[in-house]
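Complex 254.
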Amino acid sequence: MRKPFMAGNWKMNGTKSTAKEFIDNFSLSAELAEKRQVVICMPFTLLPFWSEYGGEKNPVIEIGAENVYPEPKGAYTGEISVDMLKDTGAAYCIIGHSERREYFSESDEFVNRKMNALLDGGIVPIVCVGETLEEREKGITQQVVGKQIAQSVIASAGEKDLSGIVVAYEPIWAIGTGKTATSEQAEEVCAFIRSELDRCISTAAADSIRILYGGSMKPANVDELMSKPNIDGGLVGGASLNAADFSRIAAFEE
Ligand code: PEP
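Predicted structure with phosphoenolpyruvate bound:
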């Protein structure tokens, strides 16, 4: 049984005061907190504060980063290593987000290096994949997502234990647009990803890897999306900035 996994992606938002407000206002019943994993991925600057204040005040929320550099240390001005992330208490890290692929030209190979470094350091990678609207309209969604999964994840099969990673399917046309994929569209691609993991890694890995849907997930659509068998959770941007909305998302109805 895969434990549902709800992760927020705060992107380049948040200061200590907004983080404090969120921590003070997010709530999940003790019963659901046992059954669900709740993570906020945040800017590096917030991690130490959240780890300390949030760890005391609202420990149901685990914390993650939004990026990492794959080298252990050295002359990489402005970058953050896996060990530095661990030092803050981060347990997860988003990699391969479409915004990083687009604005920072990050390739599948680079995403794969980051995934390997995170796995070596004991941080859970949340690997994002997804197609553009143009690619969907051309009918090549599976080709595009299949290649991303092959080069960023499956490339490490045999060398790394991939069973604990998290994959996020995020159709780019649905991110930050208010347009959500239908639950059928999301399920179809998540099922395809699982079949690729099964075919190219192992049935055990495919059964244990959580596959999330991301793209304008919100209180109004979470229950429907979460009713699908291959959608194990969500990667939530905009709606994760609001404690009441994210509380409702984490408390989706089964
Ligand atoms: C995201 O940033 O990963 C995302 C899915 O954003 P939003 O929920 O705002 O579409």
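The longest helix spans residues 183-200.
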